[in-house]
């Protein structure tokens, strides 16, 4: 039989397992983001201790990601001047609808819950804004009206 038709092992035909991509931007975190990282690490460590061999590699990969995020975390407070920025909750009117957007770190982001990473286009448009500002967005002038800006309370978030 030709060597071309012989399989050395089942492992050689599996898709390669890559590390989880780490965002290139600084790892800014709110107080809640720091807690989230610690919770994920604790959960993964417990899962690794209880897991069987096939699942351990994927869990260890995830653990490496979160340990790196813990190491690179930069706790960041909201701007002191009361403007919109990282760690703030901004109430806006966009397309006739009122929304409250929290500007948070990459790992805390949850767009369906209006928690946007600080690098997201809408969050980026809001940074530096103050109440009563009218901002351009998505190619439209006066697309966003800023109604209120408040710092995210580290105890509630």
Order of helices and strands: EHHEEEEHEE
What is the number of beta strands?
7
**Helix fraction bin:** 25-40%
What is the structural class? alpha/beta
CATH class of the largest domain: Alpha Beta
Tell me the domain tally.
2
- Choose one word for the global shape: elongated
Tell me the CATH architecture of the largest domain: Roll
Keywords: Kinase, Transferase
Domain Transcription elongation factor GreA/GreB C-terminal: 82-150
Organism: Sphingomonas taxi
GO molecular function: DNA binding; kinase activity
Q: Care to describe what's here?
A:
The protein has helices at 31-50, 53-72, 121-126, and strands at 27-29, 73-75, 88-94, 97-104, 115-117, 134-137, 140-151. The protein is an alpha/beta fold. It has two domains: 26-75, no CATH class; 88-151, Transcription elongation factor, GreA/GreB, C-terminal domain (Chitinase A, domain 3, Roll). The relative contact order is 0.16. A hairpin with a 2-residue loop joins strand 3 and strand 4. The strands form two sheets. The protein has a five-stranded mixed sheet. A two-stranded parallel ribbon has the order 1-2. The mean pLDDT is 88. It is elongated. Helix content is 29%, strand content 25%. Helix 1 runs antiparallel to helix 2 (53-72).
List the topology elements.
Layout: E1 27-29, H1 31-50, H2 53-72, E2 73-75, E3 88-94, E4 97-104, E5 115-117, H3 121-126, E6 134-137, E7 140-151
Parallel strand pairs: 1-2, 4-5
Antiparallel strand pairs: 3-4, 3-7, 6-7
Helix pairs in contact: 1-2
